[in-house]
């Protein structure tokens, strides 16, 4: 309705609010196996549709179907399942540790485990991720010790970052995991810059940038796309659309573009949407994008369509802004349940083995936790030295810091 002379301010609203019935009828889900798999050197102008569809491999019956299927062996898939189960178990224990006051803060991955676990397996040694706080699966799937992650979460005497980072903001050069910055979207410009440097020095390593749906509203995201597209930087540009940015629904940052993947089209960047709760689809698309980067074909933007089942962080209460049962209504299911079903369907897994694996994994996580707690927790046991806070920034400590250190007597 067009009223002459009266302007209206438009603010997008989510379909439902607390108390309402969850409604995902606006999420169009193509059949598994129905989206084509183009050659990696395809002309981006011919695959614009992929920014508006969803690449899926696992169908409702748990079968792997279509052109994106068939890349992973039984053993690789079993390993993938174990990684996702480990991350879920790790999350549950650390969330509990936060409630027990052993750390100040925690952020879970519940429902999004496939994204980071499967993506890690598409990279090669030496490649570098520029992650946010919800991609710990990159470390778990690369064999980074859980004890070290816990030491960081507890800021204890064995914390490799010596208590100088917020809990869960890990860093490991060896595992291709760039130090997390709490300032969101900085990951994008850093990843593109790192990728450009890799190309300038004729290296073979590629970068992966990570961002959430909400953070794509930051200008760093857009600046990064300009540089990535102009210089064909060897980078995979990941957008994890988990439907929420704390209490803000994804429609705010998405604006009128239809999908987050569509943001890449204006830059001429091949842009794909993938079912983020489908381990096989995530891996296949990540592999496709990584191969393009490595073959000098430039950046690819990938939107993972998923759902944040847990709270944003240990400081958040989602019942204030979305219906309680919304996660149950999410039409793409649970990534662990779906891979489990596929493996049973393949004849290499069973309910009994799954239950047994769950118990074994929990035992491993608890053993790691015990070991980490021997080095201290937030309010008990060993702590990093106050001296550490003066170190690690300057090669040569400037006089004013030396003076402060002397005043502190450390
Ligand atoms: C530049 C910047 N602005 C705001 C914040 C505060 N903040 C922390 S998390 C968050 C929501 C991010 O949502 P999204 O990008 O969708 O990621 P998700 O938490 O869903 O994984 C905000 C606004 C921040 N950390 N950095
Ligand atoms: Mg989000």
Structure description:
One of its GO terms (molecular function) is branched-chain 2-oxo acid dehydrogenase activity. Residues 7-44 form the 2-oxoisovalerate dehydrogenase E1 alpha subunit N-terminal domain. Residues 83-379 form the Dehydrogenase E1 component domain. With 410 residues, the protein is an alpha/beta fold. It is built from 12 helices and 7 strands. The strands form 2 sheets. A 5-stranded parallel sheet has the order 1-2-3-7-6, sandwiched between helices. α2 (113-120) crosses α8. The longest helix is centred in the first third of the chain and has 26 residues, at 74-99. The protein is globular and about 65 Å long. It starts with 73 loop residues before the first helix and ends with a helix. The mean pLDDT is 97. Bound molecules: thiamine diphosphate and magnesium ion. Thiamine diphosphate (TPP) is lined by residues 134, 182-185, 212-215, 218, 240, 242, 244-246, 308, 312.
User: With helices defined by DSSP (H or I, 4 residues minimum), what is the helix count?
Assistant: 12
The strand count comes to 7
Overall morphology: globular
Mean pLDDT: 97
- Derived structural class: alpha/beta
How big is the Rg? 22 Å
Q: Which ligands are bound?
A: thiamine diphosphate, magnesium ion
Q: What is the percent of helical residues?
A: 25-40%
Low-confidence stretches: none
Distance between the termini: 70 Å
Strand content: 5-15%
Strand order of the largest sheet: 1-2-3-7-6
SSE sequence, one letter per element: HHEHHHEHEEEHEHEHHHH
Main sheet makeup: 5 strands, parallel
């Amino acid at each position: 309705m067009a009223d002459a002379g009266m302007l209206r301010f438009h603010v997008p609203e989510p379909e439902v609010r607390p108390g309402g019935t969850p409604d995902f009828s606006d999420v169009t889900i193509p059949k598994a196996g129905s989206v084509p798999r183009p050659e990696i050197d395809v002309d981006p102008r011919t695959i614009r549709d992929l920014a508006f569809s969803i690449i899926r491999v696992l169908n409702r019956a748990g079968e792997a179907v279509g052109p994106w299927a068939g890349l992973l062996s039984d053993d690789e898939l079993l390993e993938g399942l174990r990684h996702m189960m480990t991350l879920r178990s790790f999350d549950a224990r650390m969330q509990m540790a936060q409630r027990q006051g052993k750390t100040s803060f925690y952020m879970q991955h519940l429902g999004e485990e496939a994204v980071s676990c499967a993506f890690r397996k598409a990279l090669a040694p030496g490649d570098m991720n520029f992650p946010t706080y919800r991609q710990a699966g990159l470390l778990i799937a690369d064999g980074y010790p859980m004890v070290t992650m816990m030491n960081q979460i507890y800021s204890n005497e064995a914390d490799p970052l010596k208590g100088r980072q917020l809990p869960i903001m890990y860093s490991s050069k060896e595992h291709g995991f760039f130090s997390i910055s709490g300032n969101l979207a900085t990951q994008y410009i850093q990843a593109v810059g790192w990728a450009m440097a890799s190309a300038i020095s004729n290296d073979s390593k590629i970068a992966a940038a990570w961002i959430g749906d909400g953070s794509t509203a930051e200008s760093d995201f857009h600046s990064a796309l300009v540089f990535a597209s102009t210089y064909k930087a060897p980078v995979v540009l990941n957008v994890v659309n988990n439907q929420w940015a704390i209490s803000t629904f994804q429609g705010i940052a998405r604006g009128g573009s239809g999908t987050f993947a569509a943001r890449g089209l204006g830059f001429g960047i091949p842009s794909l949407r993938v079912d983020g709760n489908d381990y096989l689809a995530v891996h296949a698309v990540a592999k496709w994008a990584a191969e393009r980067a490595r073959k000098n074909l430039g950046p690819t933007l990938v939107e993972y369509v998923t759902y944040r089942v847990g709270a944003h962080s240990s400081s958040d209460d989602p019942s204030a802004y979305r219906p309680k049962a919304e996660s149950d209504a999410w039409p793409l299911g649970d990534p662990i349940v779906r891979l489990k079903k596929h493996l049973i369907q393949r004849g290499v897994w069973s309910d009994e083995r799954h239950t047994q694996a769950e118990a074994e994994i929990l035992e491993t996580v608890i053993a790691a936790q015990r070991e980490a707690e021997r080095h201290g927790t937030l309010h008990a046991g060993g702590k990093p030295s106050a001296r550490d806070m003066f170190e690690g920034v300057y090669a040569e400590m400037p006089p004013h810091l030396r003076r402060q250190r002397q005043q502190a007597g450390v």
